[in-house]
């Protein structure tokens, strides 16, 4: 028997050995890996609420039972689009205690569910009808798995008697592959089709256990149309209280890591998986004088204005990181909750310390993947638990501190008021949105990602969200609605015009009066593609987009919108957007020829033997030719 689960940085683990979960009282319990090199200790953290009570429900339908089960698990919101095949399930959700939000596209609903999870730390539901409803949602669910969210997909499928008979939007093995969509695998940690009400107690048990595990959990429960209305009879519901838990490291391994780290100067590399350990990371840095850098998703976990912060690594990162690694190289780097993948490291050899890494993650498969030839001391543990124990090993003699290179904003020279330079827009966003409000900020993939990651500075965790692994266009443009809804407060998306044209949920935000803000970098291009192809010296590819007035589109949907063409008008427009009680679009016409920030990237590429030659990049044949890694 095997179980899949993901860590807080979204890594898949498949385990074959089990031990009993800690529980309260006498409950069902399913085990997790006890292989000594994979799992050290399980520590209780919080309790998933009791499921359906131990009584019978002779008049309850399967759809109603599922809705009640999800509410009892603490799920408050469901995002999706209905259809005839899931009419009964939609009705049951709509009459439950969940808030049901009806979106305009299933992918947007799934992205919103992902960001609602991260904004609230509560699992969410996506619902779709059969056929294209499911396939439309898959990109957002792919992002859910990649980002490490806890999301449950409820879908409809064709009832058994109609399968193979060309039913409307037939969803069966005749029309869709079963593997990976209706079965557990790379996309879903757990997936099943409900053919009988008798399956529900076991399904509820599986979901409760999955939601209790560390990191993400993405499930798919597909219910045939006829089964949705069948009655739940003769079933005794289990009372299933499952403690959430965290994985903690062996004491001996923590002590050994302390010996490795504290004997010589070391650095700390912070990833998104360490977002719940901000206080411990701060304490460790302050007491050791260690330099701190972060991945793009890790921005704000350690204050970016701290003198020991040397910068953001990877895409949109800071040249100061490479300066630090070249001039003040640490003996080792403590890596916390990041895979060190391409968007975070570019796999640059400059980022490898002389004596290697101490790499902590709840997924034992993560350490050593990005840099397989580097010396890596691997620890499987919850980041916060590991750091709390590591801090007990600090020597009494204080560590020496030194001045470290810090990210420095590039000077902005005087220029004509039109068009708006992206760096000037980011300066205004920093002042009005980041420092002048408590709004969370989401950045879309592409140049929106690089400009925002490079220019904005955060001093607290959980205020900045980007997707680095999947990086789907439309993630922030639609996810911002879920973030604002879940936190019951302002959320701001920095997006490109291409993403806004591909998929946005302005209409949904208007319907539910959700205080979302879109800041559109309007350059009439897929500009990362345009600039990337130009740098590569490749000609003839068309990345142009017809000019679009997004403020007019917003007003046509019932939102408010303002167009900005002058740098002098930026702050007033952003203040109006932040103060607005309705959805708001700030449509900014930006200079399309301003190159996206690449100081850190260029230094990293230079360290790999890649040299600039005029406007082109000259690379050896063995080097990858693509963008953003151009």
UniProtKB/TrEMBL annotation:
GO molecular function: acetolactate synthase activity; flavin adenine dinucleotide binding; magnesium ion binding; thiamine pyrophosphate binding
Domain Thiamine pyrophosphate enzyme TPP-binding: 445-588
Amino-acid biosynthesis among keywords: no
GO process annotations (BP): isoleucine biosynthetic process; L-valine biosynthetic process
GO cellular component: acetolactate synthase complex
Keywords: Thiamine pyrophosphate
Thiamine pyrophosphate enzyme central domain boundaries: 267-390
Superkingdom of the source species: Bacteria
InterPro entries xrefs: DHS-like_NAD/FAD-binding_dom (IPR029035), THDP-binding (IPR029061), Thiamin_PyroP_enz_cen_dom (IPR012000), Thiamin_PyroP_enz_TPP-bd_dom (IPR012001), TPP_enz (IPR045229), TPP_enzyme_TPP-bd (IPR011766)
Residues annotated as domain Thiamine pyrophosphate enzyme N-terminal TPP-binding: 61-171
NCBIfam families per the UniProt record, alphabetical: TPP_ScyA (NF035923)
Family statement drawn from the similarity comment of this UniProt entry: Belongs to the TPP enzyme family.
Protein's name in the database: Acetolactate synthase large subunit
Organism: Anabaenopsis circularis NIES-21
């Amino acid at each position: 028997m095997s179980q899949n689960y993901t860590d807080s940085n979204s890594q898949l683990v498949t385990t074959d050995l089990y031990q009993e979960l800690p529980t309260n009282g006498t409950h069902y319990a399913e085990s997790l890996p006890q292989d000594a090199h994979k799992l050290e200790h399980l520590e209780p953290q919080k309790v998933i609420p009791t499921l359906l009570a131990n009584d019978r429900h002779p008049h309850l339908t399967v759809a109603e039972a599922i809705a009640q089960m999800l509410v009892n698990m603490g799920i408050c919101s469901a995002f999706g689009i209905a259809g005839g095949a899931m009419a009964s399930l939609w009705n049951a959700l709509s009459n439950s205690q969940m808030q049901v939000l009806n979106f305009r596209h299933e992918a947007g609903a799934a992205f919103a569910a992902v960001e609602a999870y991260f904004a609230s730390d509560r699992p969410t539901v996506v619902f779709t009808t059969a056929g294209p409803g499911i396939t439309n949602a898959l990109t957002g669910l792919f992002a859910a798995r990649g980002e490490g969210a806890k999301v449950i997909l409820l879908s409809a499928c064709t009832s058994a008697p109609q399968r193979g008979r060309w039913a409307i939007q037939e969803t069966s093995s005749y029309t869709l592959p079963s593997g990976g969509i209706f079965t557990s695998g790379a996309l879903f940690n757990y997936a099943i089709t409900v053919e009988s009400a008798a399956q529900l107690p076991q399904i509820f048990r599986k979901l409760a256990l999955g939601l209790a595990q560390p990191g993400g959990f993405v499930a798919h429960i597909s219910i045939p149309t006829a089964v949705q209305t069948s009655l739940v009879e003769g079933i005794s519901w289990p009372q299933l209280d499952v403690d959430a838990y965290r994985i903690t490291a062996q004491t001996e391994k923590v002590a050994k890591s302390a010996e490795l780290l504290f004997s010589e100067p070391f650095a700390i590399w912070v990833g998104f998986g360490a977002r719940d350990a901000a206080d411990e990371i701060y304490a460790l840095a302050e007491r050791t004088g260690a330099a701190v850098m972060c991945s793009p998703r890790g921005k704000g976990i350690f204050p970016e204005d701290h003198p020991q912060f040397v910068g953001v690594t990877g895409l949109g990162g800071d040249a100061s990181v490479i300066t630090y690694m070249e001039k003040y190289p640490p003996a080792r780097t403590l890596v916390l909750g990041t895979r060190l993948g391409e968007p975070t490291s570019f796999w640059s050899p400059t980022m490898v310390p002389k004596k290697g890494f101490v790499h902590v993650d709840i997924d034992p498969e993560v350490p050593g993947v990005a840099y397989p030839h580097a010396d890596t001391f691997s620890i499987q543990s919850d980041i916060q638990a590991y750091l709390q124990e590591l801090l007990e090993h600090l020597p009494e003699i204080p560590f020496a501190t030194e001045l470290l290179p810090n990210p420095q904003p590039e000077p902005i020279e005087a220029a004509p008021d039109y068009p708006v330079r992206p760096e000037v827009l980011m300066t205004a966003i920093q002042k009005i949105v980041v420092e002048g409000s408590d709004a969370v900020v989401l950045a879309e993939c592409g140049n929106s990602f690089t400009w925002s990651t490079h220019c904005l500075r955060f001093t607290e965790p959980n205020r900045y969200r980007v997707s680095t692994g999947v990086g789907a266009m439309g993630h922030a443009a639609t996810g911002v609605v879920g973030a604002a809804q879940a936190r019951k407060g302002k959320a701001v998306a920095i997006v490109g015009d291409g993403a806004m044209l591909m998929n946005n949920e302005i209409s949904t935000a208007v319907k539910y009066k959700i205080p979302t803000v879109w800041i559109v970098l309007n350059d009439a291009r897929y500009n990362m593609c345009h600039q990337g192809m130009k740098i590569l010296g490749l000609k003839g590819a068309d990345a142009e987009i017809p000019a679009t007035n997004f403020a007019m589109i917003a007003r046509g949907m019932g939102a408010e919108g303002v167009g900005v063409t002058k740098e002098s008008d930026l702050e007033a427009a952003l203040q109006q957007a932040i103060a607005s009680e309705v959805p708001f679009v700030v449509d900014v016409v930006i200079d399309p020829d301003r190159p996206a920030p690449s100081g850190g990237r260029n230094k990293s590429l230079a360290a790999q033997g890649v040299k600039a030659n005029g406007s082109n990049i000259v690379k050896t044949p063995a080097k990858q030719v693509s963008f953003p890694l151009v």
